[in-house]
Design a protein that fits this description.
This protein has helices spanning 15-22, 42-45, 100-108, 116-126, 153-164, 196-201, 257-263, 269-274, 316-327, 414-431, 453-463, 513-530; strands spanning 2-9, 30-33, 63-64, 77-78, 127-129, 143-145, 180-183, 188-189, 192-193, 210-213, 216-224, 227-235, 238-250, 266-267, 281-282, 294-302, 339-343, 353-358, 362-364, 370-372, 377-384, 392-394, 405-407, 440-445, 465-466, 496-498. It contains 12 helices and 26 strands. The protein starts with a strand and ends in a 9-residue tail after the last helix. Strands 1, 2, 10, 11, 12, 13 and 26 form a 7-stranded mixed β-sheet that branches. Strands 7, 16, 17, 18, 21, 24 and 25 form a 7-stranded antiparallel β-sheet that branches. A two-stranded antiparallel ribbon has the order 3-4. Helix 4 (116-126) crosses helix 12 and helix 10 (414-431) packs across helix 11. It has 539 residues and is an alpha/beta fold. The relative contact order is 0.19.
């Protein structure tokens, strides 16, 4: 019989934190289970290699949504990391927390202890920020948070144009106030991607009380009555059961954690019975409250000195590659767009837009790869940070290896359409504001002919895409749709928690990797504070 104190399912942005922190006590046996494998590859470690991973079957689950009616029937690829580090191994490495108001809203929704003042210490605990420790940042945590290795003059001009358009400059986008524009920070260390696995697990793999199981699919949670007792896994074609003496922790992410709950008989009764799954606990909110960010990119032809496209195309891209190999510097050492602005779509509203700029532009090649354009170009994107639209996910079948069905329901709320279109107009205005406007030659995507609200919305639907931030499918709260309580315990069940992006009641106004790490840190403290005694397990 395999027995551990804690079983953590999923070695992603939250799960690696949970397993690492729990195993700090040498008397506690921790098992970390991951369906994927190791994530050792040049393009995984290289920050600019993220675009190479979109088509990877080895490192990316490459989920697809169901056809989305509000997008004219489009299916959207949802990229999720497959392996140690989870999506922190394939994301844009952006370290953005959102705004204090996000977490105060969580607390107002009935989640005591989740306000900004309570979560800030957990953000700080993880951080080893290159700028040093201060009131908002940590300086000695395991996760490396750094500035871009270089900032192009055009990116500096974007900041200046935002200031001229009325958005104040900030030296720290991860602290108030907002709106603000400034330089992003990244989870990059020494020019290499710093995943949660590298930060939290790799340095402590030697611990004798920490076991890591890869290539293992968790099929369901095991129970004795209302008490979780372990998990059933499939590894190498063999099924086996593993026992948890204290708790089972689901950190498989917003797409897999609710799937595991449903496969274990936890969810809406009608949906479970449709697939012949016996209902253990009726929680209709499992799989509901699905939220994601949507973004659209625009591109401009610009003056030659305003773009780095020439460094990333033709023979020069090999020189840039050699530079990275020997120095871990240059543009291959950069994460996603280095400068961004938080802005308002409407006067008086809370900040609800993220406007990001890149001194380069890309297009898809005939083979489907993404490559820098052959002319001087720059690009910028708009993300609607506070979508009102809500979707859901459900099981496709009772087969644990079958991908669920995802219904994101983008733009089902009219305010999302209105505010996103306003964001596109605001971005265009900023790009043409001096000093950046002096670098613009012409708009390429979508082009000046795309001018009316209807045309802009059509562009959003046809050429926009996911922000890769699905959350909310095991909502934290106390209402009828809540799946976990404020202690992250699954409601009505014992010794079972969910600690990942799925517990977010409302999506943060920023990228989700940093909040997932914070949730892992805070969730561990709750486990330790509750200190459940081990179950008596018969030999």
């Amino acid at each position: 019989m395999e027995i551990y104190d804690h079983i953590v399912v999923g070695a992603g942005s939250s799960g690696c934190v949970v397993a690492s922190r729990l195993s700090e006590d040498p008397q506690v046996r921790v098992l970390l289970i991951e369906a994927g494998g190791a994530m050792h590859a040049f393009w995984v470690n290289t920050p600019a290699g993220m675009a190479k991973l979109f088509g990877s079957e080895r490192f990316n689950w490459r989920f697809k949504t169901q056809p989305v009616p509000t997008l004219g029937g489009r299916q959207v690829q949802w990229d999720r990391g497959k392996g140690l580090g989870g999506s922190s191994s394939i994301n844009g490495m952006i370290y953005m927390r959102g705004q204090p108001e996000d977490y105060d809203q969580w607390a107002r929704l009935g989640n005591a202890g989740w306000g900004w003042d309570e979560v800030l210490p957990y953000f700080k605990r993880s951080e080893n920020n290159a700028r040093g420790a201060n009131a908002f940042h940590g300086g000695d945590g395991p996760l490396s948070v750094t500035d871009p290795v270089e900032i192009h003059h055009a990116a500096e001009d974007f900041i200046a144009s935002c200031v001229n358009a009325g958005i104040p400059r900030s030296r720290d986008l991860n602290s108030p106030p907002h709106p603000a524009v400034g330089v992003r920070q990244y989870t990059i260390k020494g020019g290499r991607r710093h995943t949660t696995y590298k930060a939290f697990i790799e340095p402590v793999r030697h611990r004798s009380n920490l076991t890591i199981l890869t290539g293992a699919h968790v099929l369901r949670v095991l129970f004795d009555g209302d008490e979780a007792t372990g998990v059933e896994v499939l590894q190498g074609g063999q099924r086996r059961q593993i026992t948890a003496a204290r708790e089972v922790i689901l950190s498989a992410g917003a797409l897999a954690s609710p799937q595991l709950l449903m496969l274990s008989g936890i969810g809406g009764a009608a949906r479970l019975q449709r697939h012949g799954i016996a209902v253990r606990r009726e929680l209709p909110g499992v799989g509901s409250n699905l939220q994601d960010h949507w973004h659209a990119s625009l591109a401009w032809r610009c003056t030659p000195g305003s773009s780095v496209n020439h460094r990333l195309s033709g023979l020069r891209k090999y020189l840039e590659g050699a530079r990275y190999v020997f120095t871990h510097g240059g543009y291959l050492a950069l994460g996603a767009a280095p400068v961004t602005a938080y802005a308002r779509s409407e006067p008086g509203a809370r900040v609800d837009l993220q406007l990001s700029f890149n001194p380069m532009s890309f297009s898809a090649t005939p083979s489907g790869e993404v490559a820098a354009d052959g002319y001087p170009g720059m690009s910028a994107s708009v993300v609607l940070l506070t979508p009102e639209s809500r979707g859901h996910m459900e099981l496709a079948s009772s087969d644990p290896l079958a991908a669920p069905l995802f219904h994101p329901n983008y733009f089902s709320d009219e305010s999302d359409v209105r505010r996103h279109v306003a964001g596109l107009r605001q971005l265009r205005q900023i790009i043409h504001t001096p000093p950046l406007g002096q670098r613009v030659v012409e708009e390429i995507k979508p082009g000046p002919a795309c001018a009316s609200d209807e045309q802009l919305f059509e562009y959003l639907k046809r050429f926009g895409g996911t922000g890769w931030h699905p959350v909310g499918t095991c909502k934290m709260g106390s209402d009828g749709e809540a799946v976990v309580d404020a202690r992250l315990r699954v409601r009505g069940l014992q010794r079972l928690r969910v600690i990942d992006a799925s517990i977010m009641p409302v999506i943060p106004t920023g990228n989700t990797n940093a909040p997932c790490i914070m949730i892992g840190e805070k969730g561990v403290d709750m486990i330790l504070e509750d200190a459940l005694a081990p179950r008596a397990i018969a030999a």
